[in-house]
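Hey, I'm writing a tutorial for new members on how sequence and structure tokens pair up, and I'd like a real worked example in the thread rather than a made-up one. If someone can provide the structure for the chain below, I'll link this post from the tutorial.
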Amino acid sequence: MEAGNRSTISEFLLLGLTEDPDLQPVLFGLFLSMYLVTILGNLLIVLAVTSDPHLHTPMYFFLSTLSFTDICISSTTVPKTLMNIQARDQSITYAACLSQACFVLIFGGLENCLLAVMACDRYVAICHPLRYTAIMHSELCILLLLLSLLIATANALLHSLTLLRLSFCTDLEIPHFFCELVQVIKLACSDTFINNLLIYSVTSLFAGVPLFGIVFPYTRIVSSILKIPSVGGRYRAFSTCGSHLSVVSLFYGTAFTVYMSSAINGSPAKNVVASMMYIVVPQMLNPFIYSLRNRDMQGALRHLFVRISYL
């Protein structure tokens, strides 16, 4: 294929984790099992929240939205990986690749914003419990969700539209199992200064603001909890934040691992594994984190299973 602009590009090649044919069935089983667990776990969270009136609160509204977002993130990347492994075809069309990169940015950005919104929700619940219902009313919750979606979509479209201006040459192999933005930009043979500038500036701002929206509320939460005289009261107050803190640690911990892996170690295989830990594993573990220590969620899931058994 001769070097040219995007009109001459028909497809990219996703190299995946390995090209060893003996490992393909293992990878197929691994991705399929993780995907099914992710879909089932998050779908149960959504159904439990929507079917139980006791969970119609801002915290569980954002939790069900987070679970739906996790389903969308996994469904954007994993099915194509499974299709390629099963068909032994590494190709992905130009349009599909750019669309995949865009939707990963949208849903990943939405999850980032939702974690910040959920931190603010916990701040109001612990630091202003008497005013919680008045502050976190349904209109504000919907507005925060729409604002998060707007910010995530604007960020994704900004990167995607600048990606359209790039020209690609003969090397169209992406050392990944999905079309990650950075990896696609590396294949361009035209000037990528604007794209790289956007990645480091806009992405830093986009990630930094939600991170501040998590750190600041929790500093106030910790300060308020330490003022509670009884140990039991402190434990009860902090236990309402434990699941969210675990999810935040998993999300940002894996994201930091991906960043450090790509910045320090240039090994494509290690970068792919690190990205899998970021784009697949957190979405699979989130339902377990929110249900194992949450009695309200456990009760809602039991009631859901009883209703399903009678169908």
